[in-house]
Amino acid sequence: MGLGRSRELIQKTIDNSTYCFGVYQGTEQVGFARVVSDLATFGFLADVFILSDYRGRGLGKWMLQTIINHPELANMKRLTLFTRTPDFYYDAGFEIFVPTNEIEFMERKVL
């Protein structure tokens, strides 16, 4: 399972998320992301991935824009995430909030 997580743990994270998003090629799931949120001011974006064979096709950017533009998430004051790939998120308006050496804490503010 993903990142060494058991199927049970993955299911629990999905069950306790506010929204889950999937990207499919036919019937095969090739991407995923989830948001935990109060649906008013704050959301946390987690477990964002596109399978390596499908990267470089714009699917990740499309999924990220779909999440950002979701009617219940679009006007939140802050969407945050932890990432090892901050360059992917800059174009979507995310900025590094707390610089670190390995994993960046980023946020996207809506004023």
TrEMBL record:
SUPFAM superfamilies: Acyl-CoA N-acyltransferases (Nat). Residues 1-111 form the N-acetyltransferase domain. InterPro entries: Acetyltransferase_Butenolide, Acyl_CoA_acyltransferase, GNAT_dom. GO terms for molecular function: acyltransferase activity, transferring groups other than amino-acyl groups. Keywords: Transferase. Pfam families: Acetyltransf_7 (PF13508). This is Acetyltransferase (GNAT) domain-containing protein.
